[in-house]
Amino acid sequence: MSKSLNQLVLPIAGGTALAISAALLVANLDYGQNQIESLERRVEQVSLQAEDASKRASEEAQVVTELRAKIEEIQASANERVASGENLTEYAPRTDGKFGLGREAVSEEIAAWDVDVLPDGRGLPEGRGDAYTGEEVFADKCASCHGDFAEGVDNWPVLAGGFDTLADKDPVKTVGSYWPYLSTVWDYVHRSMPFGEAQTLTADETYAIVAYILYSNDLVDDDFELSHENFADFEMYNKDGFVVDDRPELEYTKWRAEPCMENCKPSVEITMRATFLDVTPEDGGESVMNDATAQDTPTFVATTAAPEAAERDTEVAAASSTAIDPALFASGEKVFKKCKACHAVGEGAKNKSGPQLNGLFGRQMGSVEGFKYSKVFVAAHGEGRVWDEAALVEFLAKPRSYMKGTKMAFSGLKKEDDLAAITAYLKSFGE
Ligand code: HEC
Ligand code: HEC
């Protein structure tokens, strides 16, 4: 039975194989034919291109010859003029004692350049705007970089807070804490902001924004209106913080000695760059700049100072009762950059414009000695309320709704991950 089946199957299989190989042969022949044709076409194209190229080359050679001839001609005519005694290096002719270039600037052009504003208000255009209006304009045009409350997004400049930190190791210099003249704010904003769209703000918008920046610094109330009329009366917080530079009289004599050139370092090296030091935001994020610099920058590898800091941090983390996941700690540390302008934490942390945050969990709200809290915090303290994780998360998500009237000018953390990370981070500084 099996044999007879074989006899039947084999011829069938053999026949099929034969048919397939025949088909393949035909296909192969076809393929060869096609390839020959396409190669022939290619040869044709290439020879056309070669013809074209040689034509162009001869045309270009022609142009070169013509140009050479022209140069020779000019040279010859110059030589002739020199030979005839003409002075080729003479200045261009003057008309009326001027060079005869350009034209008088028209008054509109001068006005467009003449935008400076002086401390006494000279140079200000007429106009007005209040902090309410300013808040809207600011949210629209400035908050993407400077934050809703001028607290600064990532490492973009902080415009509010930092009061009484100027003598610290890490001073927070803002419009509120540092700038001595209001005119600088008006002039700077009107002249150069929004970054990348300079000089698009109207005078009224600028008055309103400046009023809002003052409000976000707690220097005026929210119904404050700034105008060209009351501008010069406004006194900035740090108006007396600058002194006239009297070094020529007082210090110059000290420097008259020969400079000391002993015990110099044998060589000077760059140990860190600004991007690693984190003064430049790491990525473009929501901001429009720095994409290019963020790409291709090596990730931060601590070289000199940082390892100590890392060790110290790990020690603190290890010392705390709950061991903390290093990755979470690291992301918490990153989130804390948003708080750093106003809060310190860790060994020797002092109050800045916000209270120090050591041992936060289990601590009574509004209880840091020597810090002047707003009324709502004083009330919370009176009620004996205590910080725990839930309270902190709720507060940080929406500071102004959790603590109505708080003076913490911070818009809040939107991401759950950030909230979890900051909680873990702060926890590591004692419970
Ligand atoms: C795209 C991001 C961006 C936007 C939007 C933006 N700024 Fe700025 N702002 C910056 C940068 C960057 C600097 C620092 C510029 C420098 O130091 O040269 C700055 C600096 C400032 C400063 C000076 C801060 C200081 O202490 O030196 C003020 C004030 C300011 N901006 C106000 C505004 C206002 C008001 C708006 C909205 C009309 C605005 N900015 C919109 C990026 C931005
Ligand atoms: C612009 C400055 C500023 C920023 C930014 C800021 N804070 Fe505050 N923070 C304050 C001020 C001011 C207070 C005091 C609030 C009051 O008295 O109303 C405060 C209060 C607090 C308190 C209450 C402390 C206590 O003793 O009861 C906590 C907790 C806190 N901030 C955490 C944070 C964290 C975490 C961040 C960052 C995610 C942050 N803050 C960002 C200014 C700031």
Name the features:
16 helices; extended; Cytochrome Bc1 Complex, Chain D, domain 2; mainly alpha; disordered N terminus; two-stranded antiparallel ribbon; 431 residues; binds heme C
Low-confidence stretches: 1-6, 284-321
Strand order in the sheet with the most strands: 1-2
Estimate percent helicity: 40-55%
End-to-end distance: 90 Å
Radius of gyration: 38 Å
Proper CATH architecture of the domain at 302-427:
Orthogonal Bundle
Number of helices: 16
Bound molecules: heme C
Q: CATH homologous superfamily of the domain at 302-427, by name?
A: Cytochrome c-like domain
What structural class results from the helix and strand content?
A: mainly alpha
The averaged pLDDT comes out at 82
Which term fits the overall shape? extended
- CATH topology tier name of the domain at 302-427: Cytochrome Bc1 Complex, Chain D, domain 2
- Write down how many β-strands occur, each being a DSSP E stretch of 2 or more residues: 2
Quickly name the level 1 CATH class of the domain at 302-427.
Mainly Alpha
Strand content: under 5%
Helix-strand string: HHEHHHHEHHHHHHHHHH
**Main pleated sheet:** 2 strands, antiparallel
Pfam family, one: Cytochrom_C
Organism: Roseibium porphyridii
Keywords: Coiled coil, Electron transport, Heme, Iron, Metal-binding, Transport
Protein name: C-type cytochrome
